[in-house]
Amino acid sequence: MRTQVVIIGSGPSGLLLGQLLARAGIANVIVDHASKDHILGRVRAGVLEEGTVRLMDEAGSGARMHAEGIAHDGFSLAFDGRDHRIDLFGLTGGRRVMIYGQMELTRDLMDQRERAGAPSVYEAESVTPRDFEGDAPHVAYRKNGIAHRIDCDFIAGCDGFHGVSRRSVPQNAFRSFEKVYPFGWLGILADVPPVDDELVYANHPRGFALCSMRSHTRSRHYIQCPLGEKIGDWSDQRFWDELRRRLPAHHAERVVTGPSFEKSIAPLRSFVAEPMRFNRLFLAGDAAHIVPPTGAKGLNLAASDVHYLFEAFVEHYQDRSNAGIDAYSARALARVWKAVRFSWWMTTILHRFPETSEFDQKIQEAELAYLTHSSAAATALAENYVGLPF
Ligand code: RFL
Ligand code: PHB
Which ranges carry the FAD-binding domain (predicted)? Predict the structure, then answer.
């Protein structure tokens, strides 16, 4: 079999790239080792930047997102028993974010892909990108015991942090930069109304808490927890009690509890691999970088990578120019590092770090106070949160 671009990974980055390419008449095949149901069952991001929303529209997959997503003009920073609203809309000259779950976005892109008749292979085993250093790459995999190979012009590694694409590049061909945080996020999903109309990010002596949502009837909440915490030790009741303790009283009173139908712990990490291109293999999304979720940037960075990569492929096929391909890694990384910085900073000001010195604690308090007293500081936060330009 032969195609123009093989995409490894059917997460948001692979699906978005596949849909954009298909609409531009560039043939592509998506290969994923997981099943469709497994991919659709992963609960993750919930906040979309305007650039991500625009790309969903360009991909022709934005209709349900516009109908069911919720536009947010601000969020709350809670600390010291009070909260302070960050007026995203006012501080950024009219920009906002969209609340729409990654599960829904993934489903929309998959449905659209099926309707367009573009090929996806799920449950592929031993997926391997090969010969990308030369001019004739291919992707090999096995399915139901039979070996397959897809020859192509380019391979897009959209297979997440644990994927095979980055692992297939020789160790000495890239550099990686990493920071592992000494805590994780315990998250639950429950069909109860959100605590407030907007998201609440809380810094509390017991640890960080975030009250988010998926709709007016479905809440997504997180609390900071120590590494090594066991999910089995967290009954729903224990989670709700701990969440309430970390919120200012007026929010705590409004917490509606109910049974959770998803509960998981995610470790927090910053990671960047440089470069993001290895001749005919390109990395995009979590395959190339990871950010802690505090800034709501992971999925949005995956989307901006896809934007640059899609433009590069269009230039190659339609304009017969490799300028975009040659510039891809540097363009993507310039934006990635700014989001890595913002995510690290949000994590640093909002979490309680074990063994923090009194000095560091005072600096954290001063950071939060500065945000509430200076519109310059709040504007810097807001412009990063709504998303830097592509
Ligand atoms: P994904 O979603 O991990 O998809 C990768 C796909 O590749 C497949 N795959 C393989 N296929 C073949 N062979 C292999 N060897 C393979 N290995 C893996 C997998 O099956 C999968 O289908 O990567 P992608 O597409 O780059 O998307 C990245 C986003 O999923 C991620 O950045 C976000 O979820 C991060 N994130 C958030 N991002 C935001 O922008 N806003 C948020 O509000 C937000 N909240 C979050 C988050 C991530 C979280 N966790 C669990 C880490 C909240 C949490 C709790
Ligand atoms: C979410 O709703 O899952 C969510 C929202 C904001 C974040 C991280 C996750 O910063």
Answer: 2-343
For residues 340 and 294, is the Cβ–Cβ distance under 8 A? no
Q: List CB contacts of 295: < 8 A, sequence separation 6 or more.
A: 339, 342, 343, 345, 346, 347, 384, 385
Q: Which amino acid would we find at residue 56?
A: M
Give tens-digit pLDDT for 198-238: 999 999 999 999 999 999 999 999 999 999 999 999 999 99
Give the Cα separation of 36 and 359 in Å (integer).
49
Evaluate whether 201 touches 75 at the Cβ level (below 8 Å).
Answer: yes
Identify the active-site residue in 289, 297, 307, 351.
297
Structure tokens at 284: 């995009």
Nearest CA to ligand 1 atom 54: 44
| 58-77: pLDDT as tens digits | 999 999 999 999 999 999 99
Q: Is 270 in the pocket of ligand 1 (CB under 6 A)?
A: no
- CA-based radius of gyration for the chain: 21
CA of 304 to the centre of ligand 2 (A): 18
Domain boundaries, the chain: 5-73+96-177+269-347
Dig out the tokens for 352 from the structure.
């309680």
Span from the CA of 93 to the centroid of ligand 1 (angstroms): 31
Where helices occur in 249-374 by DSSP H, the ranges are 249-252, 298-318, 323-350, 358-373
CA atoms within 13 A on the CB side of 128: 10
Distance CA(99)–CA(102), nearest Å, equals 10
CATH superfamily for 5-73+96-177+269-347 is FAD/NAD(P)-binding domain (3.50.50.60)
Q: Is 97 helix (H, G, I), strand (E, B) or coil?
A: strand
Q: What are phi and psi of 312, to 5 degrees?
A: -65, -45
Distance from the CA of 159 to the center of ligand 1, in angstroms? 8
The token duo for 157 is 């590694």
β-partners of residue 271 are 178, 290
Q: If we measure between CA atoms, which residue out of 301, 298, 323 comes closest to residue 312? A: 323
The response to whether residue 283 sits with its C-beta less than 6 Å from ligand 1 reads no
